[in-house]
Structures are given as structure tokens and as C-alpha cells.
Design a protein that fits this description.
Layout: E1 5-10, E2 14-20, E3 26-33, E4 36-37, E5 40-41, E6 48-50, E7 53-59, E8 63-69, E9 73-77, H1 82-102, E10 108-112, H2 119-132, E11 138-142, E12 154-159, E13 185-188, H3 198-218, H4 220-225, E14 227-231, H5 240-250, E15 254-258, H6 261-270, E16 278-282, H7 293-309, E17 319-324, E18 329-333, H8 349-352, E19 356-359, E20 368-373, E21 389-399, E22 404-409, E23 419-426
Parallel strand pairs: 10-14, 10-15, 11-14, 15-16, 18-23
Antiparallel strand pairs: 1-8, 2-7, 2-9, 3-6, 3-8, 4-5, 4-7, 11-12, 12-13, 17-22, 18-19, 20-21, 20-23, 21-22
The structure holds adenosine-5'-triphosphate.
Adenosine-5'-triphosphate is lined by residues 15, 17, 54-56, 113, 115-121, 143, 145, 232-233, 285, 287-289, 291.
Keywords: ATP-binding, mRNA processing, Nucleotide-binding, Nucleus, Transferase
GO biological process, one term: mRNA 3'-end processing
Domain Clp1 C-terminal: 317-429
Length: 430
């Protein structure tokens, strides 16, 4: 990192965009005026340190920023879609006010679009603007690629009690064991995209939706604030069934499409007769950056590391524990790529996609992430995929001779449950 610092002045409604590589760090300070990162206001004279991130610092009224360190890209942009995003927020805020007055339900927004359209960024903006007005919607993450709330390979939901942090974003918070969620609720999916196992994906969104609705029943404030649902890049007409399922199970009231005309027109046609659902098209920001596979892999590795070790702002000390093979019941999802002819008689591929198979512990587990299931010994083991996750462990060593595995865990002591699910994500602790 160079010590050289640069000062930028943003006029009202301008945006400073920066990209920082994983190996570099850039420090941002707000020197005067006001500015926000994806809707979260920056505090003056506070150090915001970015690494491996692509960020937009937007100012409604103008500001001066000081940037220090090595950015691979940095520039001031004059054109942004922030007005249309604010208009959407204003409409949602009116629906929340009406819901509060009538004791009804707030808006349920499904954000759709291709990969790298700015869906997560728009979700953060809508959540932060709501929180800034004392509304606390529930954020539902149906994009398993990055693990924004918990861990890559999961589908999750969390009440937004605070702003999304400009640096740490949705940092990992403790997971709840019950179906009724207080902290984030999380289900093991094990893959990076909805298309990797559509049948399981659909099963899990149904489970997640019913857990979210169970919470909304008792939590008036969240019910009136509504839901913001972020998705992966679901634009292929073959995956419209998944979109329809999301709309149905979450009772979506607004579908927001970012930067994709055909998807907008298809959704408009699908829901044209539905007065309860509005379909809205928004422009993609010119600042949204396409991320290549290598970037995504590094972002996933960082999310896994963050789960165990926290971040520079909030460090955790994970614990190492030994578990004996005999005390573990490890399952993996039935291989969905097996040809139908290779499946046992009577089992078609669609059924097999939501079946689990038991696994013998062994060297194959090394460097794996295991989801600790909330399933307990009194429950039917076939329900393991439908049970929420209570946490995750990383397998740092396997000792065949002693029949043990060593796991890294955020909490000390023995594993709280014996039922574990193998994720397709691996991690090398460094
Ligand atoms: N206005 C902007 N200026 C600079 N960077 C931006 C801007 N908007 C978004 N980005 C960055 O572009 C990248 C892609 O944006 P985002 O994650 O919101 O897209 P997405 O549609 O959710 O992608 P995916 O489908 O892959 O999850 C992110 O790194 C984000 O921080």
C-alpha cells in the first residue's frame, strides 16, 4: 500500500467508484459533507478499509473524500440510477406506513436480474434506507454463491436490525436453532447456483418461506416492514418455475428486474392479471462490475474465513475440537448428476436430488465445510435437509488411525449435534 493520499470532491448526486484487489487495501475517509455506501451513511473522520471489494460511495448533497492506498480502479461518475432506486424506496416506505396504519403486511420485494446486475447492491440500498427510517425488514438471501449472511452454499434470512456495514456487509451473526427465527435462519443447500439442484432449491425456499412467515406472525414490526429478497442470476426461461415458486411461497408483492428487458417482459406477461403483484424495471448502474470466476472463488473463500475468524473490524477466535467417527452422522446430497439409469429402481432423478446418503468419515472430508444440522436424535434422519443449520465447522485434519477428525468451530467444546451435511465448498485454512 502506498502512503500517498488523494482528495476527491463529489458534487451533489455524484458517485465515487473504487475497486481494490484482494492483495491490496484502500482506506476511505469522509472529510466533509455526507456520503453513503449502498445506502449506509459514512461517519465523518472514520477509517473505512477495503480489500478485495468493489464499492460505490454516493453523495446526495456533495462531499469531500480522502482515499489512501492502492485501488485498481477509481473514478467519479456523474450518472447513477440512484433517483429511481430512491423512488422505489419511497413507494415501499408508503406501503410500510399503510401497513402500520391498517395492521397489515408490508411490501415483499423480489429482486431479479442476470448475474452482476447489481441485485445485492440494490437489496442493500433498500434495506439500509428502510433501517434509516426505523423500519426493520427481513432480508432473504436466495443467492447461495457468496454466502452474504452466513456461509456460501446456504439459503438464509435475517431481520435487519442494523445497517448493512459498508465494509463487512452482512457479517456472520449467530444462527438460531428453532424454526422461528430470532437471529439468521439458514438452510444447507451445498451448491453455488439454483440450477445445480433445482429440486432441492425449491424445497428449501418453501421451508425458508414458512419459517419466515412463522416469524412474521408474531413479529408485527417485521411484518409491517416486509421482506427484501435477493436472488442469484436467474434469467433462463427454464428457471421461471423457481421464480414462480418464490413469488408464491413468499407472497411477493413487487418483482424488481434489474437491467434485463426480456425477463421484465416475461414477468410482466406472467403477472399481468395479478393485481397484488407489481412488476418494476430498473436500470443497472454503470458502476456494477462483472466479477470473474477467480474473483468469486476468492470472495467465497473470504466469506468462509470470515465465518470462523471474523474481520479486521471484529475478530473472532475459533476453537479446534476432535470428534470421533463413531459420534458423527455425516450425509451428503445424492449425486444429482447420476443418470436416471444409474439410480436404484423406483427412484427418479428428481426424487434423488432431495435425498441424502450417509457417508463414512475419512480423508475425503479434509478441508471440507460441514453444516451442523439442528436435527436431533429423536427426529427422522430423512428430514435432515429440511432442518435448519445451527452452524458450520471446517475439517482441518483427519486421522484414519485414531478414527477422528479435527474441526475448527466458532464455539468451544464438543459438536452440539451429531448430524452433519457435507457442502460442495472446500477451504484451505491459511
Ligand atoms: N455503482 C457501483 N459502483 C461500483 N461498484 C459497484 C456498483 N454497484 C455494484 N458494484 C459492485 O459490483 C459487483 C456486482 O454487484 P452486485 O453484487 O450487487 O451484483 P449482483 O447482481 O448481486 O451479482 P450476483 O448475481 O453475482 O450476486 C459488486 O462487487 C458490487 O459491490
Amino acid at each position: 500500500m502506498t502512503d500517498e493520499s488523494k482528495t476527491y470532491t463529489l458534487l451533489p448526486e455524484q458517485e465515487f467508484r473504487l475497486e481494490v484487489d484482494f492483495a491490496s487495501t484502500a482506506i476511505v475517509q469522509l472529510k466533509s459533507g455526507t456520503a453513503e455506501i449502498f445506502g449506509a451513511e459514512l461517519a465523518p473522520a472514520t477509517i473505512y478499509s477495503f480489500s478485495g471489494q468493489k464499492v460505490a460511495i454516493f453523495s446526495w448533497h456533495g462531499c469531500t473524500l480522502e482515499i489512501q492506498g492502492a485501488c485498481s480502479v477509481q473514478y467519479v461518475a456523474e450518472e447513477t440510477p440512484m433517483h429511481s432506486y430512491l423512488n422505489l424506496h419511497t413507494a415501499l416506505a408508503q406501503q410500510r406506513t399503510a401497513a402500520t396504519a391498517s395492521q397489515g403486511s408490508g411490501p415483499v420485494v423480489l429482486v431479479l436480474g442476470p448475474t452482476d446486475a447489481g441485485k445485492s447492491s440494490l437489496s442493500k440500498i433498500l434495506l439500509n434506507y428502510a433501517v434509516r427510517q426505523q423500519h426493520h425488514p427481513i432480508f432473504v438471501n436466495l443467492d447461495p454463491a457468496e454466502g452474504s449472511i452466513a456461509m456460501p452454499g446456504t439459503l438464509s434470512a435475517a431481520p435487519m436490525l442494523h445497517l448493512v456495514d459498508p465494509v463487512d456487509e452482512f457479517s456472520a451473526i449467530g444462527l438460531d436453532k428453532t424454526g422461528e427465527m430470532a437471529a439468521p435462519l439458514c438452510f444447507h443447500y451445498g451448491f453455488a447456483a439454483s440450477g445445480d439442484n433445482p429440486k432441492l432449491f425449491r424445497l428449501l425456499i418453501t421451508k425458508l418461506a414458512s419459517a419466515v412467515h412463522a416469524r412474521l406472525k408474531h413479529d408485527t414490526a417485521s411484518r409491517q416492514a416486509g421482506l427484501i429478497i435477493d436472488t442469484g442470476g436467474t434469467i433462463d426461461p427454464n428457471s421461471y418455475d423457481i421464480i414462480k415458486e418464490c413469488v408464491d411461497v413468499f407472497n411477493v408483492t413487487a418483482i424488481v428486474i434489474l437491467g434485463h428487458e426480456r425477463l421484465y417482459s416475461d414477468m410482466n406477461r406472467l403477472y399481468t392479471n395479478s393485481s397484488a403483484i407489481s412488476v418494476v424495471k430498473l436500470a443497472k448502474s454503470g458502476g456494477v462490475v462483472n466479477r470473474d470466476k477467480d474473483y468469486l472463488r476468492q470472495a467465497q473463500q473470504r466469506a468462509i474465513k470470515k465465518y470462523f475468524y471474523g474481520s479486521a473490524q471484529c475478530e473472532y477466535s475459533p476453537f479446534s475440537a476432535i470428534a470421533w467417527y463413531q459420534d458423527l452422522k455425516i450425509y451428503r446430497v445424492e449425486d444429482s448428476i447420476a443418470p436416471t439409469s444409474a439410480l436404484p429402481l423406483g427412484l427418479d432423478r428428481k426424487v434423488s436430488e432431495t435425498q441424502t446418503v450417509p457417508m463414512d468419515p475419512g480423508p475425503i472430508l479434509l478441508h471440507s465445510i460441514l453444516t451442523v444440522s439442528s436435527l436431533d436424535s429423536t427426529e427422522d434422519e430423512s428430514k435432515i435437509l429440511e432442518s435448519s443449520a445451527i452452524g458450520f465447522v471446517y475439517v482441518s485434519a483427519v486421522n484414519e488411525r485414531k478414527s477422528t477428525i479435527t474441526v475448527l468451530s466458532p464455539i468451544p467444546g464438543r459438536l452440539p449435534r451429531k448430524y452433519l451435511l457435507l457442502s460442495s465448498f472446500k477451504w484451505m485454512e491459511m
